[in-house]
Amino acid sequence: MKKLSARRRHPLAAVVVLLLALAATGGLYAAFAPADTAQADQTAQSLAIEEGKKLYTVGCASCHGTDGEGTTDGPSLVGVGSAAVDFQVGTGRMPAQQPGAQVPKKKNIYTQAEIDQLAAYVASLGAGPITPTEQQYSPTGADVAKGGELFRTNCAQCHNFTGKGGALTNGKYAPTLEGVSAKHLYEAMQTGPQNMPSFPDGVMPEQEKRDIIAYVETMNDPKVASSPGGITLGGLGPVSEGLFAWVAGLGALIAAAVWVAAHTAKAKKS
């Protein structure tokens, strides 16, 4: 006991006790702080899902079923993911005014916070594409020329060479891409809304989607979109548009020549 008392009275005893206390505090923080953060995130997500279910019941359940299982008026939403909800609701296509071959874009009636809650609820029904972050869809630093090649290969058949849109079969159409945000362009490629095929990352990597977005935004730039050749024909280019004008003009001249020849005095006598 005398030996232990002597150690307690050692000049460095207080320093040792302080270091042990700091170590114990750090250990307790490391053990419990991450759990608190994770629990807070889980609680926030649960609240978002709960609020999203209320919005879903009012605005979506009549067509998609009470649990998103789908009905004769609307497809199942199980597994479509939060990205599809963010695109469809964010562009005003959903809730749809009426069923039809193509659901048009219209004014959005939900706030972004409500869209996030709806997306959280639908995402809870089954795993699917997740709403992208700004870093994923930002065209900053993307390759516009590469995006043009990808667009002409994968998109121009329906959306036209300059994204002006075009008609499809049975009353369907590919909408214009003018004014569509980078986020919604990315989500459309990710989820394949309505008649459009989807391009998941396994088919089209994230970088290629960003290249296409950069190309579309470049084509929508007023400085680039203006046509130096006059009235556009869907952006086919000055050579093809000039050829069309030349053929039409030549046909008009031939028609005029035939009409004049048919109305000469000699032609009338014969």
TrEMBL record:
Q: Which molecular function terms from Gene Ontology are attached? A: heme binding; iron ion binding; quinol-cytochrome-c reductase activity
What species does this protein belong to?
A: Streptomyces clavuligerus
**PTM note:** Binds 2 heme c groups covalently per subunit.
The UniProt annotation places heme c 1 binding at: C60, C63, H64
Extract the InterPro entries matched here: bc1_cytC-su, Cyt_c-like_dom, Cyt_c-like_dom_sf, Cytochrome_c_Oxidase_Subunit, TAT_signal
Q: What is this protein called?
A: Cytochrome bc1 complex cytochrome c subunit
Its membrane topology: Multi-pass membrane protein
Q: Does the keyword S-adenosyl-L-methionine apply?
A: no
Primary residence: membrane
Cellular component (GO) terms are: plasma membrane
Q: How does it assemble?
A: The cytochrome bc1 complex is composed of a cytochrome b (QcrB), the Rieske iron-sulfur protein (QcrA) and a diheme cytochrome c (QcrC) subunit.
| Annotated keywords | Cell membrane, Electron transport, Heme, Iron, Membrane, Metal-binding, Repeat, Respiratory chain, Translocase, Transmembrane, Transmembrane helix, Transport
